[in-house]
Design goal:
The protein is an alpha+beta fold and 80 residues long. It is built from two helices and three strands; from the N terminus they run βαβαβ. It has a single domain, classed as Phosphoribosylformylglycinamidine synthase subunit PurS (Mth169, Chain: A). 35% of the residues lie in helices and 29% in strands. The longest helix is centred in the C-terminal third of the chain and has 16 residues.
Length: 80
């Protein structure tokens, strides 16, 4: 089973890397970009077929390691 975890900064948390990317895009000739927020993606391959058990395990991974839940949100997508 495959899973993708997308981690993004919570609203209101400053994103200097996103601001730098936004500025660079404008410098490169993309003036229509109003805002950029950066994040990270984790692609996982899991053994087993129990989707709910996998979701529970991935949630624990996110809470313990993959995301800083004080300043970041995460979304989990699971596919077979």
């Amino acid at each position: 089973m495959k899973a993708r975890v997308t981690v993004t900064l919570k609203a209101g948390v400053l994103d200097p890397q996103g601001q730098a990317i936004e500025g660079s895009l404008k410098t490169l000739g993309f003036p229509g970009v109003a805002s950029v927020r950066q994040g990270k993606v984790f692609d996982l391959v899991l053994e087993g077929t129990d989707v709910e058990a996998a979701r529970s395990q991935i949630t624990s991974m996110c809470d313990k390691l993959l995301a800083n839940t004080v300043i970041e949100n995460y979304a989990i997508e699971i596919s077979n």
